[in-house]
Every structure is written in C-alpha cells, then in structure tokens.
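sanity check this:
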Amino acid sequence: MRFANIIKVALRALRRSAMRSILTALGIIIGVAAVIAMVSIGNGAKSQVEASIASLGQNIISVFPGSMTSGGMRGGWGSASTLTVEDALAIQREVAGVANLSPEMRDRSQVLANGLNWNTSVLGEDISYLDIRLWSLADGEMFTEADVRSGTKVCVIGKTVATQLFPDSDPIGQNIRVRNIPFKIVGVLTPKGFNYFGSDQDDVMIIPYTSFLKRLARRPNLNSILVQASSPDIMARVQQDITDLLQQRRNGREPDFTVRNQQELAEAATATTKTMTVLLGAIAGVSLIVGGIGIMNIMLVSVTERTREIGIRLAVGAHGRDVLTQFLVEAIILSVMGGALGVLLGVGASQLVSKLNGWPVLVSTTAIFGAVAFSAAIGVFFGFYPARKAAQLDPIEALRYE
C-alpha cells in the first residue's frame, strides 16, 4: 500500500470518530500549550533580568574590599574598607585594557533643598561613572575633571530626587544640602527605574569622589572600585591583572579584596530563572506523557473495534507492516495535530498572561519546534504497541471476531 493511501485511510478512520479523536488529542493540545506558555513566561523573566543587569553597564569589573583574615577572623565582601584611591589610580595606570574607571564611595543621607527633605543614596564617583553605567543626562551636564581634582561641591541627581525636592521648579543651578554642606546641582539624570535587586536607580545623588572623601566621609578608604574593560573578550584577563596588581601592592599579604565581573553577576542572577523555566517546562511536559497514554488507550480500543476490518485487509493481501504503518500514522496524526493546536493555544495563552498581568513573555521557537517534535515522538512511542498488536492479528481469528 502506498504511503499516500495509508494517510488517506488513517484520516478517514479518524473522521469516522471525530469527537473521540478530538478528545484524544486534547491531552496533547493541553500539554504542548502548557509547555509553550510556561517556557515563554520563564524566558521572559530571564530576559528581563538580563536587561536589568545590562542596564548597569557593559564589561564591568567590580573590586570590593574584604575577603581578608585578621587576627584569626575571616571576612567576605565589604567586611573591611581596605581599598584606597591609590589602588584605583594604579589599576588605571598599569592594567592594559581598562577603558574607564571610577573609585566609589556610597552612603545614605538626608538631603535638604527647596524647603523639603529626602533620604537618598549619595555616591562619590569619577566623571567616567555615567559612561560605565551607560547613563545619560536629561538636563544640565556632568561635573568635570577639574571638579574632581579640586573636590568641588557640585552634584548630579536622579529623577526621583528631582521630583521629591523640586516638584514645581527646575533643579539646575540650585543647591542641595548634605549634612549641612551645600552642593550645586549641575545635572539631572535620565530615568532608569528599578533594577533587578528592587532598588530605585533614580533615587540617587552623585558627587565627585574627592568631594565625598574630603567633606562627607569619616574614613579614607573606598567602598569599591568600578572598572570597565574595553571589550568583553578581555574581561577575564583584565580581572586577573587587577587581582595580580592589587596582590602585588600588598606585598604578599593575604588578599583583602574581591574582584568580580559582570558576567558572574549575570549568571548568578539568571540561575534562578533558568531553574524555574526548566522546572515549569518539565511539569508541563508531564501532561504530554499523559496525553500520549490517552492516545495509546484509544488506539487499543480502535484495534479492538476494527478487528474484522483488519482481518479483511490481511485476507485480501495486505501485509502486517501495512496495518502497522496505518495505525502508527493515525497515532502520529493525532499527536502532531494536537501539537500544532497546542502551539497556537500556548502562544495565545502566554500573550494573554502578559497582557493581563504585565509580565514579560518571550516565545521561543526552540520550545515550539521541541514541543511539536516531542508530541510526534509521543505518537510514535505510544502508538507503536497498538499498531504492532493490530499487525500481529491472525486473519482467520480476526474474521471470526464479533
């Protein structure tokens, strides 16, 4: 029997029991839809985390104080302030491949302006900070290299600070007081919103790090050093060179610093979403197995119902492999049709979830083709036993079957 005829016979048999065929395929439809929807939501969450990490800047290497041993006491990140401005200048001067660098000071403080007050993050940074963080100004300008050298009392502020302290006026040129020290506002940053860690990136005031050290800090050391490599290909080498240089500057003492790159941060941040995507996809995939069992059950019933038909075909010259192929094709058609409808339902469901809840979704073509291929494989796997049983029927016994 030609394969085209086998397909025609299989389709005719499925049409004869259309309702049963639809209900049989329903398990596959729901399973594929669930896989597509769950993977799309998981991928959307992962892409959102990656975008949030990318908004922090590109090719970033961070040097933190800590990871030290003193008097038998061991500490991790930030356990001691051991980084100095000289360390930062040495990295900029001696490590090849450093595009930008900013010594960092951080604190939270109550700031006052325009008769209002607000508690915000005060950062001490170099002029390169905005280039490293891929951050632009909505108004005004960044403080200059001369401001950094002289420790001038100038600042740029985030949109949240501008909104809270200057709701009805232009903040450019006005003063904002930190610990009763006035800083002149020279720029307002473009809004960035919340980052992956849930912090409002626009709730910030940035001043020259020299001004921070001279006027606000109660210690001479830095909170961290922010380094930007010139390309992603050399990040590992730059990271190692920074580690070697800082260790050399400490004359062989145990490391009192930790060097991490942005890729490590991104991998740690996306590890959870990757795990959840795989877990959700696996749970949804169980319903595909259930759908396959349903196909096998119905095909076994179909073999029993069509025993006489099978006997007649075998009696008039059909081979066992023709009968096996016919029933196998019926199972595959059911699963593939269910898979195709499941893809449409899954894409629609993921878009509906995104619209109703505002969640990001990313429909993966790999998940679509994988789900359809898996559903076809289920048709072959669960359809083979009923098809083989049909092919092995004895023609005489089949013709006697009532």
